[in-house]
Amino acid sequence: MIPIAEAEIDRLIAEDVGFGDLTTRTLGISGLPGRISFSARDPMVACATEEAARILARLGAVPRLLVASGEAVAPGTLLLEATGAAGALHAGWKVTQTLLEWSAGIASAVRDIAEAARAAVPGITVACTRKSAPLTRALSIKSILAGGGAMHRTGLGDTILVFPEHRAFLRGENLSVTIARLRAAAPERAIVVEVANHDDALSAVAAGADVVQLEKFSPDAVAWVCAQASDGASHAKIAAAGGVNASNAAAYAKAGADILVTSAPYMARPRDVQVRISAG
Question: What is the pTM of this model?
Fold first, then answer.
């Protein structure tokens, strides 16, 4: 798992509690002792439980972590609990609940896609794009990893990925020349080329791309490219991207793709987490 900076924890708290809790303060209960617990209502892959515990601790409560990120749990499973003053518990309530639900939604969706794909082809890579909600990149990556996925790219500086939109500025330069220039400039980096049709896919394979990314190809079209690519001496891996989800992951895996690239988990329904707060 990746580390989540303390600044992220502070930012989550500040977003909801930047000016304090008017209700709890006005009722005069802020200093009274209590307990809070978070339990799974849905089957889920738990995620961000560590960050939820850090939020509660940062607010002055004493958390007890029961389930780590990446663990699959059944409904009713107690994920996290904490004791402390009512002011701290109420301040941490919604920010932690929302974080747990949202993160578990992404992690669980990744697990669903990975399980569907790996039932057809064990060990196939499911890689998620960087199309997370703005300002959630670190926690989104943690959720992807918790679900058993990999990151396609963490950002623009992560990999070399040549899109048709890049090639539009290259004045018709032959792709093999482009790849040779990139390999000379960054010899330790893999070169990925995205294509939108069969001919460009085979050209990218012939030009020596390390990964040929097939954008919005059907499983049958992926299978055709894989069959053609396997006829030569190419070392290129084939990535299927665009529209990959749990319902079609097995078909893309069976088609011969080495990597499934998806953004679907970022649109997943959050998994429901029940919160109970009691006095004493």
Answer: 0.95
